[in-house]
Amino acid sequence: MSTDLLTDESCGLRERKKRETRRALNLAALDLVEEKGFAAVTTEEIASRAGVSARTFFNYFPSKEAAVIGTTAEELESYAAALEEDVHGETPLESLRRILASMLAPSSIDKELRARRRRILLGEPSLAPALVGNNIRIENALTAALERRLGVRPGASLEARLTVAVAIAAVRACIEHQQNGGSGRLERNIDQAFERIGAGLR
Question: For the chain, which domains are there?
């Protein structure tokens, strides 16, 4: 077996272990909030429930709010890197459609977990500022990536922020439509939404 193959395998194992730890911390945070209420939960308890040290907790999430929401800085960086890459023949809006779809893919987050997280967030008003802040972080990271892709200075053009904001709003609208008993499959509704806004955002 070659050294390169060993390296690839070890990197794959490390990445899988990191994903498993991240998920364990997120699930532990959700479990504890459901059991005790958000205010009564500590980062130490979340770490203990997930079977890791308090120090390890902070390698993945900066706060207990972040652990409940589940988005990591590492994930933000990967989404931004994917958008910054100029795929031949793909418009920025099409790239955003692909990247936002990957956030919703079963391999990223299952429907039951998403619904559970949403229920907990809606039931804990104190988490609202953290959720808003998380959404802003995602939007800012994607906007900065698109600015780099378009070769414009940060804030020099409205195009990047408008494109990202509209794309995120389209996906959010489709999710809300689905969760409120709307017709159609989520993936197809997202496709249709992007087709409609695509005519105005080249």
Answer: 1-70 (1.10.357.10), 71-202 (1.10.357.10)
What string of DSSP letters covers the chain? --HHHHHHHHHHHHHHHHHHHHHHHHHHHHHHHHHH-GGG--HHHHHHHHTS-HHHHHHH-SSHHHHHH---HHHHHHHHHHHHS--TT--HHHHHHHHHHHHHSTTT--HHHHHHHHHHHHH-GGGHHHHHHHHHHHHHHHHHHHHHHHT--TTS-HHHHHHHHHHHHHHHHHHHHHHTT-SS-HHHHHHHHHHHHHTT--
pTM: 0.74
pLDDT over 90 at 70, yes or no: no
pLDDT at 30: 95
